[in-house]
Design a protein that fits this description.
Layout (H helix, E strand, L loop, with lengths): L13 H19 L1 H5 L2 H4 L5 H4 L4 H17 L1 H7 L9 H22 L6 H25 L12 H19 L3 H8 L11 H28 L9 H22 L1 H36 L5
Length: 298
């Protein structure tokens, strides 16, 4: 039996608390330090926050150290994925969550460390890291478009088909509609094709997302206005039914675009690695130079 999400009820995850723990104080620092960051370089040296917020300051350099540590944490996920002997460290899905949450915290840390400047060695490291983060956002999107179990392992076509049948069963039981009526309600005119270049495939994937969002909104309005099978749905039942419908349509779209998504994902892997290595080299050079010239507060 493949796990199916039974409702849209939201519960804070470990990733949410991790981002809140890091993101809240970093956002506060950026807000309180706005007068300093908006000032010119000549004005900054006269401000009382200069010793704290400059790149070599107490807060600025501490943010850089934390960013460096998080950057090294980002490399644990590819190591976990490559070496099966590290399976004892946790599932791929959990390591992907750590990878994503860590990457999302980096922009604020880098902004604080660079004092919102983008020139010199600081700018080189900042730009390299931002390119890697932007590339990672695309990779995360492609990752979610490949059907996977909760462990992060990719599902086979038979497992996807079984999960779709289970969703249709749940949707029929929730709404009281027949399987045929449910099938027609979930039928979405394909907006995607496996043919074309990388940008075209990405556009089709996004079009599929928009099409699924539009169809689930239509189903929510329809089932809320006209009771399916002659019986009204409770708010929870309606929410569950729409969630089941969204998951089934998503699986249909993902299975149809699976080979194309895998091709783009493979290409992304080839392109993402040089970006990550370039960022690592730039960051290491930056750290070595800073330590060598003694531009530290410790």
């Amino acid at each position: 039996m493949i796990a199916v999400v039974k409702s849209r009820r939201w519960a804070p995850s470990a990733r949410f608390w991790w981002l809140l723990l890091i993101g809240a104080p970093l956002t506060l620092i950026n807000i309180l330090g706005a007068p300093y960051y908006l000032a010119t370089m000549e004005e900054r040296v006269r401000l009382p926050w200069h010793a704290w917020l400059r790149p070599s300051g107490y807060i600025g350099q501490s943010a850089g150290i934390v960013a460096l540590l998080i950057f090294f944490v980002l490399w644990l996920y590819p190591l976990r994925k490559k070496f099966k002997a590290l399976a004892f460290m946790g599932s791929l899905g959990k390591w992907m969550d750590v990878h994503v949450a860590s990457a999302l915290a980096l922009p604020l840390l880098l902004a604080i460390h660079s004092s919102w400047r983008s020139n010199g060695l600081i700018g080189l490291g900042l730009m390299a890291m931002l390119v890697v983060i932007a590339s990672g956002v695309v990779g995360r999107y492609l990752y979610t478009r490949i059907p996977r179990a909760r462990s992060g392992v990719e599902l086979t076509r038979d497992e996807v088909a079984a999960k779709r049948r289970e969703l249709i069963e749940l949707l029929a039981a929730t709404t009281g509609l027949s399987h045929e009526v449910v099938g027609r309600a979930l039928d979405v005119t394909p907006a995607a094709t496996e043919q074309g270049g990388i940008l075209k495939i990405l556009w089709h994937l996004i079009s599929d997302d928009l099409l699924r969002w539009k169809r689930t909104r239509e189903l929510r309005r329809r089932w809320a206005a006209v009771a399916p099978a002659g019986r009204p749905l409770s708010r929870q039942a309606l929410s569950d039914a729409v969630e089941y419908a969204s998951q089934e349509i998503s699986l249909d779209q993902q299975s149809r675009m699976l080979e194309a998504t895998q091709r783009v994902f493979a290409f992304w892997h080839v392109a993402h690695r040089p970006f990550a290595i370039t960022a690592l080299i730039a960051v290491l050079i930056h750290v070595i130079v800073v330590v060598a010239v003694g531009a530290t507060w410790f």
